[in-house]
Amino acid sequence: MKYRVLVLENVSFETPKGLVTAKQGWKIKLTKDEAIPIIKAGLITLIEKVAYKVYSESLGRYLWIVEKPEHKTGLREQNITEAIYTFQETKLLEGMDRELLNAVQQVKEIFEDSEVIECISIPREIELSRYGIAKG
Predict the structure, then answer these.
(1) Residue 35, exposed/middle/buried by CB under 10 A (0-12, 13-18, 19+)?
(2) Which of 80, 93, 100, 107 could form a disulfide with 75 if both were Cys (CB 3.0 to 4.6 A apart)?
(3) Going by C-beta distance under 8 Å and a sequence separation of 6 or more, which residues neighbour residue 65?
(4) d(CA 118, CA 33)
(5) Is 5 in contact with 44 (CB distance < 8 Å)?
(6) Cα–chain-centroid distance for residue 17?
(7) How far apart, in whole angstroms, are the C-alpha atoms of residue 41 and residue 129?
(8) What global pTM score does this model have?
């Protein structure tokens, strides 16, 4: 897959076809491997927004990951029905157990525009007491 990028500053880089020089303002297509180091150097920027479809072993289903919440709209317009997460949301959910991940996933599937804002730890005994289960 090739990504459309905008050249911010004149740049030369190696491709399978040899050395290429791109001038400021040009719009070009690069592979992921070609684009990433140049993006990190601040010499080019993505023109198109990128979304990643991921299969989650923990959830047993597919989900999408986008950079920003506003990028979800483009996927919905393409009739994507799976849950969509932002990069920030995935960072908040790191280390969460499977049961809670499934609960979040169900909410995201029902309420398509929902967003994970914060995750906090609740001591297990407090959580169990909600359901009338005594500690010990």
Answers:
(1) buried
(2) 80
(3) 51, 52, 54, 84, 85, 86, 87, 90
(4) 33
(5) yes
(6) 31
(7) 52
(8) 0.58
Q: Which helix (H) or strand (E) holds 28?
A: strand 27-31
Distance between CA atoms of residues 66 and 77, nearest Å: 14
Q: CA-to-CA distance for 135 and 120, rounded, in angstroms?
A: 21
* Contact status, residue 64 vs residue 83, Cβ threshold 8 Å: yes
- pLDDT tens per residue, range 67-105: 888 888 888 888 888 999 998 999 899 888 888 888 899
In the chain, where the domains are located: 2-46, 50-136
> Token match 């959910």: residue?
93
Which amino acid, one-letter code, is at 25?
Answer: G
